[in-house]
């Protein structure tokens, strides 16, 4: 085990990091292909970050936009394997790059928290006959925070690191964000989407993979704390065992 993060807001953090690099008012970040490392560090460490404009108005900012990538990921039919539908949907979004300044249609803001801007965005996409945005999925991904995120190595390969999300419960069930096609979309579903999105778009780096159990089940791992014995040995932890471990660690 390398690192553990508690309730980390991965989507919001990566959005903020990305827009600080490409939308900073610190010179020409919005137009440069690759800001140098010193200026990236300066931008990321600013306590007050107030660019003049969050609009996506250049090809470079479009290509590097966190939200453009998220729009493509939140295709309403993607989970059903509708490849042709997704290709058309993605092509519509890509075609908007040439109409950015005239349309004034897109901003690099947190659409998970700003419902009015999300509705405006959806309406603008519909004006371009792009009706397949799953806005509930987008909002859920931007708002979800796994209880624990664990980075670890496995099998002796130092170059390969794995990301595992854990949703911890004590005598309670998972929260449900919304329903889609009769199925409850729960916390562990959304958390897998977060890991998958970050991995697909290169935000996790070249050598990081998603935990094998998450990749197999297409959901984050749920851990249940129990007062009494449980038949689910893989996902249940007895409170008494946790107390004993705590005593050993801090003895």
Topology of this protein?
Elements: E1 3-6, H1 10-22, H2 37-44, H3 59-63, H4 66-73, H5 83-95, H6 100-103, H7 115-127, H8 135-143, E2 148-153, E3 161-170, E4 176-180, E5 183-186, H9 187-200, E6 208-210, H10 212-217, E7 221-226, E8 236-238, H11 239-249
Parallel strand pairs: 3-6, 3-7, 7-8
Antiparallel strand pairs: 1-2, 2-3, 4-5
Helix pairs in contact: 8-9
Please tag this protein with its features:
single chain; alpha/beta; two-stranded antiparallel sheet; 11 helices
What does it look like?
- The protein has 251 residues and is α/β, with parallel strands linked by helices.
- It has two domains: 10-142, no CATH class; 144-249, no CATH class.
- The protein has helices spanning 10-22, 37-44, 59-63, 66-73, 83-95, 100-103, 115-127, 135-143, 187-200, 212-217, 239-249; strands at residues 3-6, 148-153, 161-170, 176-180, 183-186, 208-210, 221-226, 236-238.
- Strands 1, 2, 3, 6, 7 and 8 form a six-stranded mixed beta sheet that branches. Strands 4-5 form a two-stranded antiparallel ribbon.
- Helix 8 (135-143) packs across helix 9 (187-200).
- It is elongated, with a radius of gyration of 20 Å.
- The two termini are 21 Å apart.
């Amino acid at each position: 085990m390398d690192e553990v993060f508690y309730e980390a807001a991965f989507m919001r953090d990566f959005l903020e990091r990305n827009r600080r690099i490409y939308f900073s008012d610190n010179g020409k970040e919005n137009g440069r292909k690759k800001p140098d490392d010193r200026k990236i560090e300066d931008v990321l460490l600013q306590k007050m970050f107030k660019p003049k404009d969050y609009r996506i108005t250049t090809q470079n900012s479009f290509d590097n936009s966190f939200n453009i990538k998220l729009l493509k990921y939140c295709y309403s039919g993607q989970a059903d394997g509708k490849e042709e539908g997704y290709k058309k949907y993605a092509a519509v979004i890509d075609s908007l790059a040439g109409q950015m300044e005239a349309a004034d249609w897109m901003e690099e803001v947190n659409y998970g928290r700003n419902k009015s801007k999300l509705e405006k965005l959806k309406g603008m996409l519909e004006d371009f006959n792009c009706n397949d945005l799953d806005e509930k999925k987008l909002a859920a991904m931007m708002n979800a925070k796994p209880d624990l995120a664990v980075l670890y190595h496995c099998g002796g390969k130092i170059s390969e690191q794995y990301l595992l999300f854990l949703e911890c419960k004590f005598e309670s069930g998972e929260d449900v964000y919304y329903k889609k096609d009769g199925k409850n979309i729960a916390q562990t579903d959304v958390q897998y989407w977060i890991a998958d999105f970050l991995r697909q778009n290169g935000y996790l780096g070249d050598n990081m993979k998603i935990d094998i159990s998450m990749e197999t089940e297409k959901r984050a791992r749920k851990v249940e704390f129990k007062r009494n014995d449980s038949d689910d040995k893989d996902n249940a932890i007895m409170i008494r065992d946790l107390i004993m471990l705590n005593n050993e660690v801090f003895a």
